[in-house]
Amino acid sequence: MESQAKIVKALNKQMGKEFSSAYNYLASAAYFEEQELPGFANFFHIQAKEELVHAMKIFEFIHRIGGDTELLPIPAPKAGFESALDAFEQGLKQEKELASEINSLLNLATDEHHSPARVFMFWFVNEQVEEEALFTRCIKRIKLVGKDGQGLLMLDKEFAERKADSAEGPDA
Ligand SMILES: [Fe+2]
Ligand SMILES: [Fe+2]
């Protein structure tokens, strides 16, 4: 397969993963809506929107480099979470997987001497550092309050203040 075709194939795959992570975060948002924790739900609504932005960045880029778009199936999210902590731990796991896939894509672009794709991926590498830091911070804070209802309600208030377009956490 020629270099460009390999890159386009990998980009289409990554776009699918970004849509899929948006879908998973929507499942988390729905879970917190059901728990009547609207702040936590807000956090994941914003998270889902960010993943859609990532997917669309790739969508545009594929077109700009003259590649063919391939929209792959999006698997259904796993149903239900055990707790707030579980939802965030699954989020961190997902971000780590995304980071590793992005790293592979960057390595592919390097091996194939595809400079536009290489430079394009730099943004995603930085974004993944932010995402992992954000989830790690949230997990630590949720562990601090444990199952304490008051503590969770306090965190819910903080998460309610998270605004779209902010890569920072609720307490940053
Ligand atoms: Fe993403
Ligand atoms: Fe992400």
Report on the architecture of this protein.
The protein is mainly α and 172 residues long. It has a single domain (3-160), classed as Ferritin, core subunit, four-helix bundle (Ferritin, Up-down Bundle), CATH 1.20.1260.10. Helices cover 76% and strands 0% of the residues. α1 packs antiparallel against α3 (84-111) and α4 runs antiparallel to α5. The site of one fe (ii) ion has 5 residues, from α1 and α2.
Give a topology summary.
Layout: H1 3-34, H2 38-64, H3 84-111, H4 115-145, H5 149-160
Helix pairs in contact: 1-2, 1-3, 2-5, 3-4, 4-5
The structure holds fe (ii) ion (FE2) (2 copies).
Keywords summarizing the entry:
disordered C terminus; 76% helix; mainly alpha; Ferritin; binds fe (ii) ion
Quick rundown:
This protein has 172 residues and is an all-alpha fold.
Which series of helices and strands comes N to C?
Answer: HHHHH
Average of the residue pLDDT scores: 94
Query: What global shape is seen?
Result: elongated
Number of helices: 5
Strand content: under 5%
Domain module tally: 1
Q: Please give the alpha-carbon distance between the first and last residues.
A: 46 Å
The CATH architecture comes to: Up-down Bundle
Question: Any idea of the CATH topology?
Answer: Ferritin
Gyration radius (Cα, Å) is 17 Å
* The top level CATH class name: Mainly Alpha
Oligomer: single chain
Number of strands: 0
Distinct compounds present: fe (ii) ion
Uncertain runs are 167-172
Question: Superfamily at the CATH H level?
Answer: Ferritin, core subunit, four-helix bundle
